[in-house]
Design goal:
Order of helices and strands: HHHHHHHHEEHH
Number of strands: 2
Strand content: under 5%
Distance between the termini: 50 Å
Structural class: mainly alpha
Number of helices: 10
């Protein structure tokens, strides 16, 4: 399996490893979810929370290259996506079944599947593999729309963009352009006045590139408790926030 570090490694100050980057994303996500449930008045929290998803998407791309078993990686994402759906529905819509919006782990899984098909085409370079890659990408995008997953097709393309631009000359500039296109130019959602313009709150996601560019290519401490702890945090914290919200409202 490819173990080469990302071409975006920056080491002037030692950089940050994958665990540290993941902790940052988790903290930013928690801020956003606290704003959505218990602390609605602090708008800055959801602005900061916009940085979380691109970091998770970047780590899916990096994890694809560094994992020793890609199928197990996909199965683990699927397992925790299924586990997280009821806590997500409770937090998002106060019901155990809300079919109109699925949690972000499904988005990341679709991105991983699209990347897997693309990587096969890159390695085999056959017409059949290229066709399967195109169909895989289109299928993932279609499922993201029909399944109404968090961040939708833009979320899937964010994972794909980090994969496609890995090792690309001038990758940092191409990443910045992709993030602007996906989160500012082509995004419709909550707008705020900024410098005389209507600026999408999702546009703050572009700032996630700053910690991503500080990634040093190192995984950090590796053990199963830590690995599964990051996955478990997602459903557990949403369930706790829902219970606290229900008690306090």
């Amino acid at each position: 399996m490819c173990k080469s570090p990302s071409s975006l490694i920056r080491k002037p100050l030692g950089g940050i490893n994958a665990n540290q980057l993941r902790c940052l994303a988790v903290a930013l996500m928690l801020l956003d979810h606290l704003w959505a449930t218990l602390i609605p008045g602090n708008f800055w929290m959801t602005c900061a929370g916009r940085l979380a998803f691109p970091i998770f998407a970047f780590q899916i791309s990096e994890g694809f290259f560094h994992t020793s078993d890609r199928k197990r990686y996909a199965r683990r994402l699927l397992l925790f996506a299924l586990i997280s759906e009821i806590p997500f529905d409770l937090m998002y819509a106060s019901t155990v079944l809300y079919p109109f919006h699925q949690n972000v782990l499904f988005t990341l899984l679709l991105g991983l599947l699209a990347v897997s098909a693309m990587d096969r085409a890159r390695r085999e370079r056959t017409g059949k593999a290229v066709l399967l890659a195109v169909l895989g990408l289109l299928g993932a995008l279609l499922l993201s729309v029909l399944g109404m997953v968090d961040y939708g097709w833009r979320g899937v393309l964010t994972v794909v963009a980090f994969y496609a631009l890995r090792g690309f000359p001038g990758a940092w500039l191409a990443q910045a352009a992709a993030m602007v296109l996906l989160n500012i130019v082509g995004f419709q959602g909550l707008l705020i006045p900024l410098l005389g313009l209507d600026f999408p709150v999702q546009g703050f996601a572009v700032l996630a590139l700053l910690p991503i560019w500080l990634y040093n290519g190192q995984p950090g401490a590796k053990n199963r408790v830590l690995q599964y702890g990051f996955y478990a945090f997602y459903p557990v914290h949403m369930l706790i926030l829902y219970l606290l919200f229900s008690l306090l409202r």
